[in-house]
Amino acid sequence: MTEDNRKPADASDEVAGTPSEETVGATENGEDGFAAERERYEAEIASLKDKFLRAFAEADNVRRRAEREVADAKVYGITGFARDVLSLADDFERALGTIDADARAGAEGTLKTLLDGIELTARSLNQTLAKHGVARIEAEGTKFDPNLHQAMFEVPNAEVPSGTVVQVIQPGYTIGGRVLRPALVGVSKGGPKAAPADAQGNTSN
After folding, report:
1. Residue 167 in contact with residue 185, Cβ under 8 Å?
2. Domain boundaries 134-194, CATH class
3. DSSP helix/strand/coil, 112
4. Does residue 54 register a pLDDT over 80?
5. What phi and psi, each to the nearest 5 degrees, are found at residue 138?
6. Tens digits of residue pLDDT in 27-42
7. What pLDDT band is residue 204 in, cutting at 50, 70 and 90?
8. Where are the domains of the chain?
9. What is the dihedral of CA 120, 126, 130, 134, to 10 degrees?
10. 8 Å CB contact between 149 and 170
11. Pairing state of beta strands 149-156 and 178-181?
């Protein structure tokens, strides 16, 4: 056979083992599809993670709110009862106040026993109230606070700063830090103005 009768070599024979364009394209399409699928799963995982975190946070908020409500119920559940009991404390205080100090000091026999019993009962009642978070508002001599006090009248007094509580008509009480009953008070007027709280203790340079 002569060289002229030889069949031309196919191009694929010259690059035997080299991927064709179709093969390369299929591989790239497969990789692109895998990447897109991976992105979709990652986005779905991120979405589920976000939903889980939100649900967990909401459940935690519900738990905290329930705990707070239970705690508040323990502290403030007796508010109505405590408010009614305060009238008894007022009665004891008025009963003791009707007898001046000299008469009480000179009391003997049955009267002394009666007064001691009233005083002991009043003290026990106040201790019981304090045990359940009910505290008396110490108002006299303090600056009038509308959150704690209810002004009934003004008392002209030039010796104390204006707005000072100089008389307590009915003591006030708090329960768990909240006002159970404001103190009914008389407030001074005509005296010097009280110094601002932020100015106390400051000196000019």
Report:
1. yes
2. mainly beta
3. helix
4. yes
5. -85, 100
6. 666 677 777 888 888 8
7. very low
8. 20-76, 80-132, 134-194
9. 170
10. no
11. unpaired
